Amino acid sequence: MDVGAPVRWVDGYQRMHRWISFPIAVGKRFGESGAGSLAAAIAYYGFFSLFPLLMVLTSIASIALKGRTDLQEQLVRSALSQFPVIGTQIRQEVGSIEGSAVAVTIGLALALWAGLGGVRAAQVAMNTVWDVPRTRRPSTPASIGRAALMLVVLGVFVAAAAALAGVATATSGPLSVTLGLLGSIALNVAMFAVAYRVLTSASVAWRDVIPGACVAGVGWTALLAAGGWIVGGRLASSSDVYGTFALVIGLLGWIYLGAQLTLLGAVLNVVAAKRLWPRSLQGNDLTDADERALRRSARQEERREDETVTVSFEATPSKRVD
Question: Which residue among 22, 43, 263, 289 is buried most deeply as judged by most CB within 10 Å?
């Protein structure tokens, strides 16, 4: 009995049908890129970056919107709405940096520096997913500059989300709910599209990042809608064992889930832009997409300008990726 026949049949079928070969290629590329480990790194640094960044946001809001405590609260609530259930508990632990002008300036600078960690971890992940050679990755000052730019972009989207929430609460009815949902989806898609372009050193066009941004934006909106059930259930099951530490577990889990969704969209962009499908389900029968993907992965290891990494396969000439 030929036990490999079903695998060969499925492999042959998926190679001929894009509707199944493309998601298989995305899943395979997700694993090859180590996206799960990259998401864990983002969650780790993002967890420690969250509170300093919230302190920066709260402090800037209190300075820029002095005397408008209602707008300050709305702005902070818009940021914390990305963390269902646990957002209200986080708000109780975060305050603004106060004191003299010098103390506030130093405090904001230190908090901002601490908060850059999560964004820089996402930057490393995006460069890895796009197979950017190490010689082309940004230096530390350039990396910090990109991360700071992304923080500004995130601040703009938080302000836009606060404005959208204000409009939604001012009206009522099914139409306002629908428009609010569509507005949230559009805002999330735009945020992911900008993030996918800013956080990588690869040469990508807007058309290269839109597919993944749409998937990530819609997926994030759906996760927020189901977030109360997801995080609430996790906290309920953890509270009996870990008590107050359940908040940490819920927060880490939510950040990790968001990081995985973000990297899934990025991997989808790479597969679509570089046509890395169909992929083989059998190790000894590589497709052209398999060879291109393996060459791209290997070229990441170029660490010097005078170093060239090439890959060859049996009966296949060595090629450089573009």
Answer: 263
Confirm if 81 and 161 have CB atoms less than 8 A apart. yes
Give the integer Cα–Cα distance in Å for 187 and 164.
9
Q: How many of the other CB atoms lie within 10 Å of CB of 80? A: 19
Distance between CA atoms of residues 266 and 275, nearest Å:
14
The rounded Cα 21 to chain-centroid distance in angstroms is: 24
**Rounded-to-integer distance, Cα 302 and Cα 65, Å:** 49
Reading the block at residue 235, the tokens are: 């906290």
- Cβ of 24: how many Cβ atoms within 10 Å? 19
Q: What is the pLDDT of residues 167-201, one digit of tens each?
A: 666 666 677 777 778 888 999 999 999 999 999 99
Give, in order, the Cα–Cα distances in Å from 104 to each of 76, 86, 91, 147, 173: 19, 27, 20, 22, 43
pLDDT digits (tens, 9 = 90+) for 59-108: 887 877 777 777 777 777 777 777 776 676 676 667 666 766 777 777 77
Between CA 167 and CA 157 the distance in angstroms is: 15
Rounded to whole angstroms, the Cα distance separating 78 from 163 reads 9
Nearest to 125 by CA among 38, 238, 228, 13: 38
CA distances in angstroms from 203 to 61, 110, 208, 215, 260, listed in the order given: 35, 32, 10, 21, 23
Burial-class residue 178 by CB neighbours within 10 Å (0-12, 13-18, 19+). Answer: exposed
Tokens 């590589």 belong to residue: 286
Please give the torsion angle defined by the CA atoms of residues 77, 79, 85 and 89, in that order, rounded to the nearest 10 degrees: -70
- Phi–psi pair at 313, nearest 5 degrees: -125, 155
Tokens of 32: 């090859």
Which tokens is 255 given? 């950040």
The phi, psi pair for 136, rounded to 5°, reads -100, 0
Nearest CA to 112 out of 82, 81, 149, 84 is that of 149
